[in-house]
């Protein structure tokens, strides 16, 4: 396998939750178990105290399959992250993914648990920076925009084997209350559709989600900003991936969904773009831009929520080891009305992955 191909696989695994590479530990009688993980030794440099210093962590996951019959397969996945920048008594662990399901040949898969939201099917295309990126509309435990709990997900590839490259996702999220108001959600539904024109270098995608908002989220005392019965979002993206070039962009809008100081933005317009080139010697420079603009915010009007240029690079020693630098050049105003940090951040690190 060419070094450039290996690097393309690795950059995806390093910056998304999809494990391209895994170590097979068991494969017998229709049962298979793989393990994967990485150690990311990383340091942030910034004037912003909470974003300065050691950011090291370890990520570990398992994926299993069992062949029930000729057409039906059962599967499960668990992924966790452990902090490496705290004292042993203060170290933290968090579960990123935990789901199980069934896959029926030519008809698709259905699973339930903690998984990726339907909107992230579009947002993932630009979540490719060496360290930063993917943080305009994609937020963990924010309805179905990224990783979230209580997700029942149906996925179908190649549209029942009829249309090559046409992938469909249908998703339902159950109510999650009794947590921080910004991480709650009511019952919701999401869908996404992606098409690569039968295996071409270009692909297009779109997604839509709509969820009930909880009583706490509609309580003006708990969340004075962003009122309404529904939280909605839509996104559309484009991607080109060929000839050692990776280009991707998406635009999305959210309603009563994106968290801000005091609650939620009534409306947010989000844009991301990334351009990367893979050299045969293992070097991969990256240039990107991320913008999220809040609109119609109570007592404020319009205000940027996220706005930065990203310049970075990764060097792949081999398929398991890489080093990176990523410079987040903040474009937010120092006097922004929501008090959002406007400092630049530089990330330096090395990653070992299996």
From TrEMBL:
Location within or outside the cell: Cell outer membrane
What membrane topology is given? Multi-pass membrane protein
Signal peptide as annotated in the record: 1-22
| Assigned keywords, A-Z | Cell outer membrane, Ion transport, Membrane, Porin, Signal, Stress response, Transmembrane, Transmembrane beta strand, Transport
Superkingdom in the source lineage: Bacteria
| Main location, first listed in the record | membrane
What is the annotated quaternary arrangement, including any partners?
Answer: Homotrimer.
Q: What family, per the record? A: Belongs to the Gram-negative porin family.
Q: What does this protein do?
A: Uptake of inorganic phosphate, phosphorylated compounds, and some other negatively charged solutes.
The name this protein goes by in its record: Outer membrane porin PhoE
Naturally occurring in which organism (per UniProt): Pseudocitrobacter corydidari
């Amino acid at each position: 396998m060419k070094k450039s191909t290996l690097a393309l696989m690795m950059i995806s695994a390093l910056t998304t939750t999809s494990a391209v590479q895994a170590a097979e530990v068991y494969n017998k009688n229709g049962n298979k178990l793989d393990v994967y993980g990485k150690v990311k030794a990383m340091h942030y440099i910034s004037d912003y105290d909470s974003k300065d210093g050691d950011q090291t962590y370890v990520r570990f996951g398992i994926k299993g399959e069992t062949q029930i019959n000729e057409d039906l397969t059962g599967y499960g996945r668990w992924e966790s992250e452990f902090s490496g920048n705290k004292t042993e008594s203060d170290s933290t662990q968090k579960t990123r993914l935990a789901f199980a399901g069934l896959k029926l040949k030519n008809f698709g898969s259905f699973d339930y648990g903690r998984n990726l939201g339907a909107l992230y099917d579009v947002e993932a295309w630009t979540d490719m920076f060496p360290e930063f990126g993917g943080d305009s509309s994609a937020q963990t435990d924010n309805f179905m925009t990224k990783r979230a709990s209580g997700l029942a997900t149906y996925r179908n590839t190649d549209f029942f084997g009829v249309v090559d490259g046409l992938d469909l996702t249908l998703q339902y999220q159950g109510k999650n209350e009794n947590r921080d108001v910004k991480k709650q959600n009511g019952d919701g539904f999401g869908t996404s559709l992606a098409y690569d024109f039968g295996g071409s270098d270009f692909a297009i995608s779109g997604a839509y989600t709509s969820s009930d908002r909880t009583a706490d989220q509609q309580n003006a005392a708990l969340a004075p900003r962003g009122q309404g019965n529904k939280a909605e979002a839509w996104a559309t993206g484009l991607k080109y991936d060929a000839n050692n070039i990776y280009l991707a962009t998406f635009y999305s809008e959210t309603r009563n969904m994106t968290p801000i100081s005091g609650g939620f933005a009534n409306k947010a317009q989000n844009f991301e773009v990334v351009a990367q080139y893979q050299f045969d010697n293992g070097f991969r420079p990256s240039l990107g831009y991320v913008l999220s603009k809040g609109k119609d915010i109570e007592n404020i009007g319009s205000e940027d929520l996220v706005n930065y240029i990203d310049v970075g690079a990764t060097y792949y020693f081999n398929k398991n080891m890489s080093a990176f630098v990523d410079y987040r050049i903040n474009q937010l105003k120092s006097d922004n009305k929501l008090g959002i940090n406007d400092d630049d951040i530089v990330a330096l690190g090395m990653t070992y992955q299996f």
